[in-house]
Amino acid sequence: MGNDVRFITRNFGKYDPMSIDSYLSIGGYAGLKRAMAMDGEDIASLIAEAKVKGRGGAAYDMGRKWSQSRAVKAPHKVVICNADEGETCTFKDRELIKNDPFNLIEAITICGYTVNAQDGYIYLREEYRHLRPLLLNAIKQAEEKNLLGDNIQNAGFNFHIHLYSGAGAYVCGEGTALIRSIEGKAGRPRKKPPFMKVSGLYALPTCVNNVESFSIVPHLLIDDEREYISYGSGESLGTKLVSLGGNVRRPGVYEIPFGTTVRDIIYDLGQGIPGGQSLRLIQFGGASGKISDGRILDTPYTYDDLKAAGVTVGSGSILVVDSRTSVLDFLRMTQDFFSEESCGQCTPCREGNLHIKIILDKMARGEATQADIRDMKKIATIMSISSLCGLGESAQNALLSAMKIFPKIFEIGGVA
Q1: Beta strand residue intervals within 231-345, DSSP E
Q2: Whose C-alpha in 58, 121, 151, 282 is 20 to 30 A from the C-alpha of 264?
Q3: What is the residue-averaged pLDDT of the chain?
Q4: Residues 6+ apart with CB under 8 A from 263
C-alpha cells in the first residue's frame, strides 16, 4: 500500500503562514539556531550523509554542492532559490511556499551561513505572483525578529534576501538563464564554464537550489531521531514530494518515502484512473521527462530503479494519461510546448523543435514517410547531445522514449 508521510511537510496546517510568531511557536528557526552553532562544513556533511539530491531535476548531490560553494573564496557570495517551477504537472514547490513560507526563508538563510554568502535571491515564477505578498511578509517579519538582515542573532552574520519575479519563460528554470533574468537581461542560457559556483549572479560565486531542496534542511538539522534516513534505502534515502496529475481521481502533492511503487502512488494515493479508462502512458518529471507504459507500475520510486526502467525522477511530477489520448496526440502537445518555449538561441534546439513539429503534424495527417521518421529520430538525437542547455537536451525525451515503448506508432500504417 502507498502511504504519504510528513517530514518535509510536517509544518503544513500547524501555523499561520502570515505570522512568524505562529511559526516560532511550533519550533520554527530551531534549525537556523543549531546551524549557527556549527561549522558550515559540518552542515554540508550532514546533508551529504542523508544523501539529499537536488530536487529541481538534475539530482546533484546537495551536500557536495554546498561544500564546493563554501570552498570558493570571495568577499561577496550569493545564494539563489529557484522557485521558477515551470515543468508541466509540477506544483510541489507552490505548496511548500503557500503552506510553509517561513521554513523556506529559514532554509535559505542556513545556506547563506553555510557557504559564507551575504545575499539570497528568490526567483519566483510569474504564475506564482499571488505568493509574492506571502514571501515579502515572511522576509519582513524575519528581519524584524533579527533572524534575517544585519548581525543575525548578534552573531556577526549578515544575510539579506531579495525577491524577484520572472516573466513566464520556461527556459528561466535553467540556472544561467534565471541569473541573466535577475540581472535584467534576456533570460537565455550561457555556456559553462565558468560555473555558477565561481561566477554566477553579477559574476559573483553563486549557489542555486530549488524550493524543495532548501525546505528539507531546517528539518534535517533538528532530526535527532534520524527519521529522515530511516526512509528509503541505498542512494535514495528519505522522502520525496511528488506532484501527481492528469487522469487520476485524486491529483495532488504527496510526500512519499523513497521506494514506494509507482502503482501505489497512482492507484492508492491517487485513487486510480476515473471513468473506467485504461492507462495509456505515464510521464515522469515534466514535459522534458521520459514516458513509460503500465510495465513500470511495480517499479519502486527511487533514483536508481526509475533510471533502470528508462525514466528519471526529474522535477518530481507524475503525469498519468489514459486511453482517451493517443500517444501521437500527446507527443504533438508536448512538441507544441517546446516549440513555444525554446529561446531560439542555439541552432539545434531552435531548428530541431520546428522540424520535429512539422513531422509529427505530417504523421497526424497520414502524410509522413518512413524517411520522415528516420529524420525525426536523427534530429532528436542531435538535439540531445548538442543543444546549449537542458531545454534542448531534454525536449525530445518524450519522443525518443516513445519510440522505444511504442515502436509500432512510428511504423507507417501503425495505429496511434
Answers
A1: 232-233, 236-237, 239-246, 252-257, 279-284, 291-292, 317-322
A2: 58
A3: 96
A4: 2, 297, 298
What are the extents of the domains in the chain?
20-226, 231-322, 327-410
All residues at 6 or more sequence positions from 99 whose CB lies less than 8 Å from its CB, including other chains = 9, 11, 12, 13, 17
β-pairing, 279-284 vs 317-322, is antiparallel
Q: Tell me the average pLDDT across 406-412.
A: 93
H or E element in which residue 21 lies: helix 20-25
* Separation CA 134–CA 166 (nearest Å): 17
Select from 359, 338, 360, 342 the least CA-distant residue to 350: 342
Distance CA 175, CA 208 (A): 7
User: Helices 327-341 & 347-365, crossing angle to 10 degrees?
Assistant: 150
Architecture of domain 231-322: Roll (3.10)
Residue 215 grid coordinates: 525546505
Q: β-pairing, 291-292 with 279-284? A: antiparallel
Q: Is the pTM of this model over 0.90?
A: yes
**Cβ partners under 8 Å of residue 197, min gap 6:** 65, 68, 69, 72, 205, 206, 207
CATH code that applies to domain 20-226: 3.40.50.11540
- pLDDT tens per residue across span 182-240: 999 999 999 889 999 999 999 999 999 999 999 999 999 999 999 999 999 999 999 99
The third-level CATH classification (topology) of the domain covering 327-410 is de novo design (two linked rop proteins) (1.20.1440)
